[in-house]
Amino acid sequence: MPSAVSRFAKIAAIAALTSATVFASLDDAEARRAGSFGFGSRGTRTFQAPPVTSTAPGTAAPIERSMTPRPQTTAPATAQQPLGAQRPGLFGGFGRSMIGGLIAGGLLGMLLGHGFGGGFGFLGMLLQIALIGGAVMLAMRYFANRRQPSYGVGGQSQSYNMSPTNKSSFHIPTIGSGAGFGGQSRSNRPSDEIGLAQADLDQFEELLTQVQTAYGAEDYGTLRRLTTPEAMSYLAEELGENATNGVRNRVSDVKLLQGDIAEAWREDGQEYATLAMRYSSVDAVVERDSGRVVSGDDGRPSESTEIWTFVRKSGADWKLAAIQGAEQRAA
């Protein structure tokens, strides 16, 4: 009995230690700056990976937290019909079953020496062979049609050119030229369907600085003005968790180093623009009471690369709608 109690005590101690480690990791992970994971909305493209760019050649983190409904899962392949496939017609469904039954009955009759009832003789045998041959041809044609690939509408991308001035920190290649994107398919190259102007790029740079600075200062009023209600809800949640953990995330001296347009498009009366941005900032998580640095460096700037999506209605200013982390491709 004592040995059983001892084993139980050891198991309980291990479980408690594991739980403490997990909660400590969670607390450390929650003390993070905006953009460390994917949240927000990109309209109908929320759950689609944005095209890679020179600034962010790696894969963007998927948006895990969003109020946008996820698309329905694809129906099983057996329930789908290829594009352009013919209707079943006479030999579909019940028709195929009936022919199959007749052929099976004829073969059984041949084995018993009666053909299709014993009175057809040689003619009945020929008819049976013809029916069997026709069934084989129909089956071969049916499976051949199923192997033919189906193609959606379109399939071709358009090219958009932009020549920014040298006053901005955005260094945007000629979109659609293929420069720097040789390993990508045309459908995954950057595209600008709305024709972003230099004023738009300058506003994106300004929003990057203002949002990060307001986040570090825990300025809820400024964040509400610069972001969509959905994005604001996630930022406010992060700030609240930091406060609960007794820390704050100080962010200052934000400077855009390089930016690329990943894609820009219109939908439902709104315009969306997704951009890859590499920037430097002084970023540190500190204790709220003592000011002691918990993580990061409050004396030297560090670099980050993220994917930001902005949205605006006609005639209105751009607002932050989503942030995704960017995976850096190994050199």
TrEMBL record:
PANTHER family: BLL5807 PROTEIN. Residues 46-86 are annotated as: Disordered. Residues 68-86 have a biased composition (Low complexity). This is Membrane protein. Residues 181-325 form the Tim44-like domain. Keywords: Membrane, Plasmid, Signal, Transmembrane, Transmembrane helix. Residues 1-24 form the signal peptide. It comes from the Bacteria. It comes from Rhizobium leguminosarum. The chain crosses the membrane at residues 97-116, 122-144. InterPro entries: NTF2-like_dom_sf, Tim44-like_dom.
